[in-house]
Automatic annotation (TrEMBL):
Pfam family, any one: Ceramidse_alk_C
Name the record gives this protein: ceramidase
Gene Ontology terms, MF aspect: metal ion binding; N-acylsphingosine amidohydrolase activity
Domain Neutral/alkaline non-lysosomal ceramidase N-terminal: 1-70
Lineage: Eukaryota, Viridiplantae, Streptophyta, Embryophyta, Tracheophyta
Enzyme Commission no: 3.5.1.23
Catalysed reactions listed for this entry: an N-acylsphing-4-enine + H2O = sphing-4-enine + a fatty acid
Residues annotated as binding Zn(2+): 41
Keyword Signal (UniProt): yes
Keyword Secreted in record: yes
Gene source species: Prunus avium (Cherry)
Keyword terms, alphabetized: Endoplasmic reticulum, Glycoprotein, Golgi apparatus, Hydrolase, Lipid metabolism, Metal-binding, Secreted, Signal, Sphingolipid metabolism, Zinc
């Protein structure tokens, strides 16, 4: 927390001193702690000398915070002055050396005479024939274990809106209103993916469908086979 305070103060002072009045003492600095890499703790110099838990996990030495502040001040100055800066080094991609103790899934199969992505249970329309805002249409697909490919930068589930003759994605599994649930029947070993959409109050009226994306493997060493499936269209009024 003290490291965060010092970083915020340094950025604030840099913005104020290098701007034309856009920033002042009322400027509120926020640290967004989630990033695309992880560098363990960032202790202050004083805390580092004590070598308690967080300090002992500050991996880059006693001046780690000073290095962070130095680079953030460069960024803040460039932002305040509207200057371009050169791109620094990217963090290493360590995904290939991560330790995974969970066994890989192998050999998923759909039920006879079906394919992955086929519907197990299509949308059940309400008696009125259309859904209203706040309703929850649900569709279930025959599907393989999602761990074959986590679809990083992709999605397992999409809500698509019909615009003219084309289906346009409007919500995916990044959105809190869309739920993706995979499970396997232990008696048959067949997997299903259920997509539930809690229709937002600000959703446009129109015709929608739910779409599922997934992948499977025939054997452990075979390449991924990608599939998709879509529900029937349904109206939202």
């Amino acid at each position: 927390t003290m490291a965060g305070r010092r970083l915020r103060e340094a950025v604030k002072e840099t913005l104020i001193s290098n701007s034309n009045g856009e920033f002042d003492d009322e400027t509120h600095i926020v640290i967004a702690g989630l990033t695309n890499t992880y560098s363990q703790y960032i202790a202050t110099f004083e805390e580092y000398t004590q070598q308690r838990y967080e300090a002992a996990s500050t991996l880059y030495g006693p001046h780690t915070l000073s290095a962070y502040i130095q680079e953030f001040e460069k960024l803040a100055k460039a932002m305040a002055k509207g200057e371009k800066i050169t791109k620094g080094p990217s963090p290493p991609d360590l995904s290939s050396v991560q330790l995974i103790n969970l066994r890989e899934p192998t050999g998923d199969l759909p039920p006879p005479h079906t394919n992955f992505g086929d519907m197990k249970q299509d949308i059940i329309l309400p008696k009125s024939g259309s859904f209203k805002k706040g309703d929850r249409p649900i569709a279930t697909f025959w599907s393989a274990n999602p761990r074959y490919d986590l679809l990083t930068e992709g999605t397992f589930a999409v809500v698509e809106l019909l615009q003219g003759k084309h289906w346009v994605p409007v919500y995916d599994d990044d959105d809190f209103c869309l739920f993706f649930k995979w499970k396997v029947d232990n008696s048959t070993l067949y997997g299903t993916a259920t997509i539930e959409w809690e229709i937002p109050r600000d959703a446009d009226s129109g015709v929608y469908r739910l779409r599922h994306f997934g992948s499977s493997k025939k054997t452990k060493d075979s390449p991924n086979i990608y599939f998709t499936g879509a529900s029937s269209g349904f109206a939202v009024s």
